[in-house]
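Section handout 9: paired folding examples.
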Amino acid sequence: MNTEAQVIVVGAGPVGLTAASLLARWGIQTLVLDRRPEREGAGSRSICQQRDVLDVWTAVGAGRIAEEGVTWTTARTYYRDRELSSWTFEREGPLPPFVNLSQSRTEQILDAAVAAQPLVEVRWGHEVTDVTQDASGVSVRCGQRVLRAPYALLCAGARAQPLRQALGLRFGGETFDDQFLICDVKADLPGWEDERRFYFDPSWNPGRQVLIHPCPGGTFRIDWQIAPDFIPAEADIARRIRQIIGDRPYELLWHSTYRFHHRLADRMRVGRVLLAGDCAHLVAPFGARGLNSGVPDAENAAWKLAFVLNGWAGPDLLESYHVERHAAARENLEVTGATMRFLAPRSVEERMWRRAVLEGGRVAEVDSGRFAEPFWYVDSPLTTPEPSRPFAGRPPKGASCPPAPGVILPDAALPGGRLREVCRDGFLVLLGDMCDSSLFVQVLGKVTTAPLAVRGLAEMDGTGSLAERLGAGPDEAWLIRPDAHIAAIIPHAGPESVAAAVSRALGGSPDT
């Protein structure tokens, strides 16, 4: 049966809820289906949310995630009983670099944001078992019912293999043998509430790792790497916790075990169906690149689906979703794969090298996980390259990329708000002092019917310092996409050159 929805989102996890909320911001009616009878209320699960993900959630009315989460200040790394290193995140822009907050609480906040959107309907207890499509739309089967919409976005998680198979997709990769035991523990641990601790080969977990993260309300998330055949018993869990916290009182709130997976679907777009989050890619959690890559999937998919459905771009724009987010997933797999080879070496050579690094205190070579970062769409067909603004490559650990075409726009405080807040209502053209904004408005209004704003950099903060902070020249025009990525930086800019960049960013030919 046909629905009123323009997009069916399969999966009401954080990625699916984010996508539905973003689609609603663009005026797109969305139906969210989830196989579970109701929301699960326990367990930290994915806890670490990166700044640019917090930015997206703030845009959809879920800013409480950034407000309630804990931002630890120091990351300490130990080898056995010796501290190898400690370092601190630098705060860049108005939002914290990340927060720790349980996935359960994150989902509650996102549920509230979705409930406030009249264009989103969520149906629990609707397991999607099949998906088919034709030239005019997508059909999803839920039991005896078939629901239909023009497009579908699959955010159904790692266990969505039947849906991937229905689309003819492979989900190649591997699963690591070792398990991880995770526990949410409430305890009074003075000095630990603002530190993340990573232990290599401690005496109380010999040959393996332990990771401890602070969370709100005096709780801590503890991850132990454990043997493949280990079955945790209550007494063993208690013993492991005592080895870390001593004789202090504590409360075990939740525990579970899991294995790491390293997998990627061969396509993230199949016709009118897009895949996002764990449904499309699985990575080891060190570096928090799971949910922190799923949310950018959702944002990338949402603005492109909305532009196509609103008639602002042709359907070819959707292929850039696969191009951009598949490349981002491959980057995450490369980074997390290197981390897992260090954490769980599989060959004699890898084990010897790791031991030499740790015992030698070669801090620069210790890999406990490179933290999640926004991907750079440098090679995207939507990006207009500029030789004078080359991409500098993967930045040093903990650093941001200098602005360049394809890189996300740095955030900055503005009178009454933030720079990124004005980016998510459409395309944004930022002009240097030497550019006449009235000429650009006239020409660009004839190029596209998509939402597009033209703003002078000097007028945005009233001081002229924003251009200096961004490194923007007085005769430059910067074209910013709806997901805050820089589509073009054009020196000696004229309306025609910017119009060509807009056309390209909408999926048109680079020459149009």
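Moving on to protein 2 of 2.
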Amino acid sequence: MSAIQLAARPRHPSSLRRRFFATPSQAVLSLASLALLAWIVFKVLDWAIFSAVFTGEGGPAACRGADGACWSVIANRWRIIMFGLYPYEEQWRSALACVVVVVMIVLSCLPSFWTGKRIAAVWLIGIGLFYWLMKGGMFGLRHVGEEAWGGLALTLFIFVSTCVIGFPLAICLALLRRSQLPWISHGTGLIIDAVRSLPLISILFAFAVVVPFMLPNWLQGDKLYRVICGSALFFAAYQAEIVRGGLQGVARGQEEAAMALGIGYWHRVSHILLPQAMRNALPATINQFVISFKETSLVIVVGFFEILASGNAAYGTGEWTFAYVEVYAFIALIYFVFVFSLSHYGAFLERRMAIGTR
């Protein structure tokens, strides 16, 4: 057992008393803090549960005179929050598409699927099903253009597409920046630093509005895909530095030994350097994924109805304008579920890889 673990262990059963009630003044402060915390918890529970209105019947009138939260807005407007502008009669497709993405992510997190063929099959099938369900136009499904996509499905699509495009691009940029040719390494470094020096909002705005003026009509594509490319470029610029930091943590002697054995560059990178670099960069990589998921809300500035914009529309009508806190609390819960799960999965990966290195 390490010295840190020994120091962290309580030395005797009265450690709690000694820590918080060692002196009369410390005991008073501890009791006052505990009482304040209990009062805050009670007030939140009273507002959110005990005095809240949950029924969806009666509309806004059901919340008049209530002392707690008006969850009726969620019961009445949840379709707008979850599906945005997607046609009402086709919203089952958007819901099923969200399920497909979640299942795809869960399967990708299972160690039994950590092979090139399996992970590629999961992502190709998952993305294909998602795109078919959302857009339709084949096998009897009505065509729904990207301008009508919204809600949680659009948020997940932007996040997944950003990571799928940005992560391989980040690895390429990191390897190019380590090139022995100065014009390649310096040019790549200039691109990375230029992208990282700009806020994501300006990049999204440029790809959505400015880029079409610079490209011919046949190369412009839909605005959604241009925005995804801009988000992926921003993700790749930050992730490239994370990967490069992980590569710098790999002992130089390992690459030199591989070169002495005559192992080719791509085999050195794929079998020796990158596996160790990704282990070193895992905490920062998980953090970057978390940030990217939360940054999907920024696409509202270029006119997309992701889940936050759909929430704004849900309470934006005259009858529900008073219930904005409840709407934002519901959206925050959705973000919390995804981000909390991703963070805990990252902790699981750290423990698993630490065990593998013993």
